[in-house]
Design brief:
mainly beta, six-stranded antiparallel beta barrel, 42% strand, SH3 type barrels, Elongation Factor Tu (Ef-tu), domain 3
Length: 184
């Protein structure tokens, strides 16, 4: 039940999708042939393939992917048109994006962050808990930070035992509070 910055299993019209999805950020050049080291910001980066298109920088200029591969906890990306280290250096700290229309759907019960952020959260008993203001990626599962109107925060693990239903149309998440998660 992770928000992975992705899913199309529900009606995407419930929340307006962004035009581009940020999948990573260029950390630095790699080698002398224009390679880029990319820090992933979304698991969607794993779906990129040679021949696909990525968008780089503020202008979101399109580049055809020549090669992409995992390298430690980052990715090495080569694109057409960036052929040397000097050119690659110009892309340092810029976002690597993918057109939303070109993104692959993810598994059931996975959602784009923009679908989850701002969603109202209530318990199965009807108690209003607040709104999701942030998502923490922990590796095992995401954790949703829910902020009440009082400013109090509740950390909800995105696991099946806690998340009962995600209604994108109503922008509401129904949850079961496990012992220790109760609010005051």
């Amino acid at each position: 039940m992770n928000a992975k910055r992705s899913s199309r299993n529900q009606d995407d019209s419930a929340r307006q999708p962004p035009e581009h999805l940020v999948v990573g950020r260029v950390v630095r050049p790699h080698g002398v042939r224009g390679g880029l080291v990319v820090q992933p910001e979304s698991k969607v980066i794993e779906s990129l393939q040679p021949g696909g298109i990525v968008l780089l920088g503020e202008s979101a200029r399109e580049y055809k992917i020549e090669n992409i591969r995992a390298h430690h906890k980052r990715f090495l990306l080569s694109v057409e048109g960036i052929v040397d280290r000097t050119q690659a250096e110009q892309y340092r700290d810029l976002e690597v994006k993918l057109s939303y229309q070109d993104s692959d759907p993810l598994a059931e019960y996975e959602y784009y962050y923009w679908q989850i952020l701002g969603m109202r959260v209530e318990t199965e008993e009807g108690q209003e808990l607040g709104e999701i203001v942030n998502i923490i990626e922990t590796g095992a599962n995401d954790v949703y930070i829910v902020q009440a109107e009082s400013g109090e925060e509740l950390l909800l693990p995105a696991i099946e035992d806690v998340i009962i239903d995600v209604d994108l149309e109503a922008e509401r998440m129904l949850v079961h509070l496990l012992p220790g998660l109760q609010t005051s």
